[in-house]
Amino acid sequence: MKRAAVVAVVLLVVVTGFGSAAHGKPQKPPKELVERMFPRRVFGPVKNVICITDPKGDWGFFNGQPAGLHDPYVDIRRACSAYFKRTPRQLAHLDTALACGANAGGLVVCSSSNPPVGLTKTDIALFSMELAGTPPHDFPAGETARFQLFLDVGGDPATKFQASPESPDSSSVGTNMTYQAVFNDPGTSVQDLQLLAVDRRTPQQFLTDSTARIWLRRNLVTFVVPEGETGPVSGARGGAFHGSRTAAGGGDAGQNNQDVTGGGVHAPYKLLPWIE
Predict the structure, then answer these.
(1) Neighbours of 4 (CB within 10 A)
(2) Which long-range contacts (CB under 8 A, 24 or more apart) does 245-252 make?
(3) Tens of pLDDT along 204-254?
(4) pLDDT value at position 17?
């Protein structure tokens, strides 16, 4: 099934360190960090911000083998979740502030039909992660990259991805929804940037008209997800990946690298709690 192509819009947020708490332990961040991760000029006041730090240089791969690449823009340094209480005025502002395409010093990635955020009748879940480096806005045809948000949205446990001997370090274990900015989808042969939204609770799985946004700006990636698509969110996890696009290279750890929040090189990876 061809995945929904999306207009690229990258939205990144500059973030600095905010303490020396242990990696992976949720923390209440200072106001200046909240502002950098979720700028008030875009989102207005946000609620219940929780952040975690991530170990430096913990590149891995889904099959558990040592990663051959060590890309700074794959190395996640910290991540934060938050909650955005919608009003019609704020949603209209979001449609302008996060208009699809090149915008606000970066890129905003949307579904190919560019549905307005304002279509949602629900509040907004936010997730932002800081990378150790700034990713390029395009990749060579033989390479692919993904910046990912994995969600546990409850429901039948059978809909949640399970680890296997072939993929012990899969970033999606224990989750059943994902939002991804995908550069050069391996399922196609074109150079592009897509928004991929998948709901494993539904037979069709692919959300081709998602109203979500993924904002890439400098070394940050921010996900804007209407809760009308997800329902209540139990937990969230961020991921980043870069490597080979080919069938042979895609399974070779030596040609790839990933990082996943809530852990180190290897699973298990914790979920960041989401508080409404």
Answers:
(1) 18
(2) 245/141, 245/142, 245/143, 245/144, 245/184, 245/186, 246/142, 246/186, 247/186, 249/142, 250/144, 250/186, 251/63, 252/68
(3) 899 989 999 999 999 999 999 998 899 889 999 999 999 999 988 999 999
(4) 33
Residue 83 pLDDT exceeds 90? no
- Averaged pLDDT for residues 34-62: 94
For 103, the enclosing helix (H) or strand (E) is: strand 101-103
What is the 8-class DSSP label of residue 90?
H
The total number of residues written for the chain in this structure: 276
What pLDDT, on a 0 to 100 scale, did the predictor assign at position 93?
86
Distance from C-alpha of 81 to C-alpha of 78, rounded to nearest angstrom? 11
Name the token pair of 11: 């939205």
Q: Where are the beta strands (DSSP E) in 135-231?
A: 143-152, 177-183, 193-199, 213-217, 220-226
Q: Find the angle CA(131)-CA(135)-CA(138) to the nearest 5 degrees.
A: 155
Task: Read off the amino acid at residue 228.
Answer: G
The C-alpha atoms of residue 101 and residue 91 are separated, in whole angstroms, by 18
The confidence score (pLDDT) of residue 240 equals: 98
Structure tokens that stand for 260 in this block = 């996943």
CA distance 272 to 237: 6
